[in-house]
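Q: Here's a chain of 844 amino acids. Please give me its 3D structure as tokens.
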Amino acid sequence: MRFVLAVLAWLASIAGLWLLEPVYADPSTAPLQLVLLAVLDAVAAIVLAPMIAAHTLRSPVCLATVPLAPLAAAVEPRILPMLALPLGSATLWLLSHVKLENPRRLAAVSVSALASLSIVLGIHDTPVAAIPATASIPLLFYLSGTVSSTVLLVALSYSAVASTTLWLLNLPWATLQPAMVSLATGFVLARRAASDIKARREILGRPPSELYPFITSYLVMTAIFIVVAFAGLILAGSYPGEPIGFTGAFVFSYGLVGTGYYIYKLLFIRPELRFKPLKSRWYTAWFMERAWAYRLLESYVERLRRLMERAAHPENPIIYAARYMMLSIILLAAAPAASALAVIDTAGAAIAVLLVVALAGIVLSSPFIAMRGKLAERRRNVDDELPWLTLLAATLQPAGIPLYESMRRLIGRGLLPEMEREARFVEKSIMVMGRDWITALEEVARNHPSMTFKDFVLGYTSILRTGGDVTGYLESRLREMLEWLSFRLRQYAAAAMGIGEILTILFTVFVSIFALAGGFIENTAMLQAVAYLGIPPIFTVMYSMINAIQPRTLKTYKITVGHLIPAIGILLATVYIHVHGAGMGWYSLALVMLVLGLTYGIQYHFKMRVARRHEEALEDFLRDVTEMRKIGLPPARAILALAKSRGYNTEFDKVLARLASQLRLNVPLVEAVMRTQSPSWLVNMTLFILGEIEATGGGTVKTLEQLTQFISSYNMALREMRSRLRAYELLAIITPILLGGLVSMSAGMARVFAEQNKVLAASARSAGIGVTTIFNVTPESVEVARLLAVEASLAFAALAAKTSEFSLKATLRIALVAAIVISMNLYIDPILQDVVSSMFSTAP
């Protein structure tokens, strides 16, 4: 806090200097008047910071005047008073707060006053001549006993560099005398404190490992303040003697003090850790060393901790919050550096500083935004997976397997990732906290953001505690979940159709306005900018809307070597475009998307074709297993019998054959299912449930009928949803034809109007009438409109793939639309233009 008050007093001195600078710069001003003005300026500083003391000036004076000070003084002399006048503030404070009979205090007052006045008078006479006096200040303070001997290293290095700088500037030898005296005195005193300096050198050469995080934080902050200092120096040197130059001097001094402070911390202060586990992060070490900063961090963490717990974010709240808070502090510390942009534009520099400050606020609030997003994602994902957990629990409960055990069996399977994580939370509460599984389930549910999951778990535990029918409860909740899932799929199909209609209208209107307005805009670059920047934001917004309302699916489609084919195809298409000089217009875009859609979409199509073939046979397979169970065969023996005597389709029969071969080797069905994976998540989930039924005793006929009914109803809901989305897919194919025809008609009409305008202009000129054409559709504007139509068509196709297939990987639709676009523009467009031209040219 004392350092902060010292800096405040220093800033107040700078304000006084700004007001009194014309008087300082006037050669006719008497020295006594200068002294009085310096004292008045120091009084103004004391009013703002009455608790300043001389020893608090170690870092801002003894170490902030690092070797950059002489260079800065040569560029902007007004920098030195900013370092000198706070000494006058300290002098007045010492005069009013210490007992002058103390020889050390009296010496401190004298030294402080002499240092301040020598610099002020030196600036009045020869600005650069005050530099050696500034270099002597650390040694003078040492002589008075107010500065520790550990500052000697900085005093020596500064004196040497100040002397060298003055010599390089070819200044009179007389100005070097104070620096030489300072250097000699410092050398003598350093020899007296050799043991102390030796110990410090040992720390500097081989610092202890526990100090590495602190050293890193000091280095980062030193680099930030060096950048700020150089930015201020550039600004001060670009506008000498002007208000902007003074601002640069202020920024330089601010960066200089920060640099000196962190160099001082880096070289001479050994920090102590509060929490050992946090020492490996430099940004937490910065907070741990400062009590006031750690209190701010604690209040910040208290607001964030609850959100992190509900969002199930696994990171330590202190480490997570310290990272963002430190980044915000760095941005605030570096904000003055943006003022260097005043060299280019003064208003732009002010805006840049405000933007950096605003960015610091955004960074500070971003953890709350991120946690709320994760909380919403956790709620949505758990709600999507809850029906399947209910199905598993209702299937295993008749065998005496409770809900917690059903959740625990999901761990490591990868079928329901969110439920696996919830099961791990329950397991941690049991194993680490010593809770029983019912209490652990209730604790997780009470803090859960999903009300559906909370009601489900608390309802289960309450019935279990009262001795009710848990199996009946799970069966009733399973029916509710199935109805809710079917309703959500229907609701999603209706909402997706609404989005498709909006997209059709929006893209049509957008392209129409653009095609017509292009004739009034002569700047083609502006048209291209609108074309390139208009569609992507619309696509992003619509994709986010679809993703928010879309039910979550867990389709498995792993990356394989075959995914290199799209990259190779795009490379060949790019080479073709470059060789033939097609540029970067609509044709290039459509060609690249056609190649990408074919090479990637074909792989995805065949993969999903196998998955759908598996899902088509699943219902019949479950019915057969149920019938086998009625005659006493468990699921494993039923699979063996069906693999021999029953055929479903080629793809699903392969899965049964692999399962049967594992079972013949006496591999348990659970293990056989893990080794036999299908591209269909639904098939994998169903086989997993069958394996768990086998492991818990084979299940009952009612259990298998319940499983069959659920899968059948779910598939029926999916088929109903897909049938409702057929119109959406049709819109995605009609839209490029509509937009391409619209652009072709506009181009044909523009060609006719251009010819008529030429005739009218020639007639008007022959009659002596001046005519100005305000509507002139050029070939460039037509090409830009065509590019916009192609972008809109491809964006619509991508959104259709996301809507109907729940993934952007279904790129065959994009390839189909790209082929339609290329055919429309290369073959249909000339025909439409000729038809439109003939219609308007023959009109009476």
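Q: Can you summarize the key feature?
A: The chain has four domains: 1-203, 207-344, 376-468, 497-551+574-586+725-841.
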